[in-house]
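Bit of a strange request maybe. I'm writing a small parser for structure token strings and I need a real example to test against, not something I typed by hand. Could someone generate the tokens for this chain?
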Amino acid sequence: MARRELISTGLVQFNDRPECFRAWKASFMNSIRDLSLSASEQLDLLVKWLGKDSSEHARRIRTVHVNHPEHGLRAVWNRLNEYYGAPEVIENSLFKRLESFPKVQNKNELKLRELGDLLMEIQAAKADGDLFGLSYLDTPRGINPIVQKLPFYLQEKWLTLGFNYKEQHRVTYPPFSFFVNFVCLQARMRNDPGFMLAASSNEQSGYHKPASKLESQRAVAVLKTGVSPDTSLTPSDSPSASKSTSREDPAKRCLLHNKPHPLHKCRGFRDKPIEERKALLKKHGVCYKCCKTILPENMCGNNRD
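Reply from user aminoacidic:
Good idea to test on real output. This should exercise your parser:
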């Protein structure tokens, strides 16, 4: 019972991520080191505590070596080291996670913290010394794509900070570890609880940004539009609306959009076919030539045409 308790409490589930395989393997071996487990028992534990995909490899190999569990155990570890522990596999997995990470938007402090954590994980793997492909991150081509994922204001800060480092240390480019420290420091600053509360004090006090002049003009224009009692009619079809809009000066207010811009300069009016434009001008009694003058109501139809 003591052995079962140690096994159940000391082991963790593998998540099928190559960059986590070495740490999981070390934890697994430390948990079973003093339990004197047989090869068959170790195979059973591997099938139980591996991930969804990796456990399928162990299950198939255990089935093949059912009569020789020692050979099966060695074959399982060889397969796991090949699929999850090879340096090329770990490097490829880290680079994919870095490439698929989205661009951090302004005021998205949590996403910036996630990027900093990912960079620290890559830096720790790079410091182990056997992942030589990660040395690519010490070059501008390795760091610049990551810089583009930062908000613009942090890109400008990195430009200044990185150039000063280059001048002071007489190097071709700052190392990856220096860039990781920069991102992590910025993430920690912008996730500090004290400064986050200070930044949100305006929102807590109920402060609202005043509406701009353009927004107020749009609101007045909407309020000025008449509404017909019959909900089946649109404002342009109702008698009251047509009567009021027919007297509007087309040189000051567009008859098509009922907005404060001249009809003859309206892009939507000019893009309409000629027949639709004629029909609109005739409906409102507007001169065909200048689109600015409202014709008298007693003028004959020939003069209007």
